[in-house]
Amino acid sequence: MTLRVKLFGPQARLAGRREIAVELPGPAPTCAELRDALARAAERLAPSLAASRFAVNQHYVRDDHPLREQDEIALIGMISGG
Amino acid sequence: MTLRVKLFGPQARLAGRREIAVELPGPAPTCAELRDALARAAERLAPSLAASRFAVNQHYVRDDHPLREQDEIALIGMISGG
Amino acid sequence: MDKTPSIEVRLVSGPVRAARGEDVPGVGAVVRFEGVVRPVEDGRPIEALEYEAYEPMTGRELTALAHRIADRHRLLAMRVVHSTGRVPAGAASFLLVVAAEHRGPAIRAIEEFIDRLKRDIPLWKVPVWAEGESPGADHVAHQPDHAGFA
Amino acid sequence: MDKTPSIEVRLVSGPVRAARGEDVPGVGAVVRFEGVVRPVEDGRPIEALEYEAYEPMTGRELTALAHRIADRHRLLAMRVVHSTGRVPAGAASFLLVVAAEHRGPAIRAIEEFIDRLKRDIPLWKVPVWAEGESPGADHVAHQPDHAGFA
Questions:
Q1: What is the pTM of this model?
Q2: Contact assignment for D122 to A8 by CB distance below 8 Å
Q3: What is the spatial distance between Cα D42 and Cα D27, in angstroms, rounded to a whole number?
Q4: Which end is more exposed in chain C, N or C (fewer Cβ atoms within 10 Å of the end residue's Cβ)?
């Protein structure tokens, strides 16, 4: 399935785009699998991925969270408010 | 000699006055001796004296500081700014 | 304190506060502390606190303390304002503003300044009890009212 | 920072700030934190920071955090304002005001809120380099300028 992941801030600059599409096999891939796929799809994101979290449909989820094609997925990393 | 000690805030209320005169023997009594004499001269001050300091001529001094009759002496205790 | 706190959260487009020409350059954190007179002292309602200083010693000691704290925490700016005389409940008697490059030193400077203030600076406060509240024997029994000292 | 800090100390007669009708009763300490955009990022001059949020998640997480901190420290009031978009150097991008009975919880609430903000809240900043500063390869090499995202 194709998952679309929103990018923000420095990670959007690193990837050169605000959204990235990733192909993942299986009916319900997890966030952990998405993380690995992102590192391959956008090399420049790789160093910041370990310290990043995912939000699915606007809520933080854990790495074992299963993903569906219609989910709104956001990569939340390199944050620094204040 | 006669020493005049300025009182402030709660200690002035406790003693019922803003200045108290204390008689002390000797040519150069110390602040420690003054403290003891104050406790006798104004019983209601006694509980707060151990945690009080003296200022002489507008500067904090130690307990062994020798006092002269013309000194401006202030009892600095029960302070609570802010 | 089982009341619900008043909470307001907003995202705004653009600055929360514009740049000010008079600011010291390089500031990253401004912390402002206001000490407010609470309406109760030792469990009894008060109208006000009456503050006393011992000038010029009080001002001199406050200034020396401000310099020590500013040096230790490498502050860029510091402002201290303290009341003397009568301050009604709900009003502020003390203002401390510090500016620093980073928030850690700014916050530590605030804490340390107030700790030192309460220990070392010749400043006193005396409660002015609310009307109808008779002064307790343990506080000002057979003492003249604070007004008698004015 | 070997400049002499700007230090001002004053004793004033009467309140430093008058009582305000709208205040929550019982307040003893009001602490206000302002986060200001510094003119340098990673050692290079910037013109501004560009803040991004992910709404409505950002506002919802900020509000939840405010309630958690207010409960834990028994605050009487809390106000949070954060910028999105461009904030020039010297301007404030973040304002946090807390009111509590005592200063300890107020100061701890400020510290804890900011720690959590930087760890948990979806907010990002991107430097807008000062004119004449070419972006370093380690930062934004062959990336479109942030304006390309607007």
A1: 0.90
A2: yes
A3: 40
A4: C
Q: Does D69 touch chain C (CB under 8 A)?
A: no
User: D135: which DSSP letter?
Assistant: P
Of D35, D60, D143, the CB nearest to A82: D35
Q: What are phi and psi of B7, to 5 degrees?
A: -120, 150
A43: tokens are 């090399």
The complex's ipTM?
0.90
- The strand pair at D92-100 and C77-88 is best described as unpaired
Instruction: Assess contact for A19 and A4: CB atoms under 8 A.
Output: yes
Assess contact for C100 and D29: CB atoms under 8 A: no
Residues of B in contact with C52 (CB under 8 A): 8-9, 12
- Taking a contact as any Cβ pair under 8 Å apart, which residues of chain C between 80 and 99 contact chain D? 80-95
- Note every long-range contact of C38-41, with CB atoms under 8 Å and residues 24 or more positions apart, other chains counting: C38/C89, C38/D26, C38/D27, C38/D28, C38/D101, C39/C89, C39/C90, C39/D25, C39/D26, C40/D26, C41/C127
CA distance C21 to B81: 33
Q: What is the DSSP letter of B7?
A: -
C-alpha–C-alpha distance, residues C45 and C127, integer Å: 9
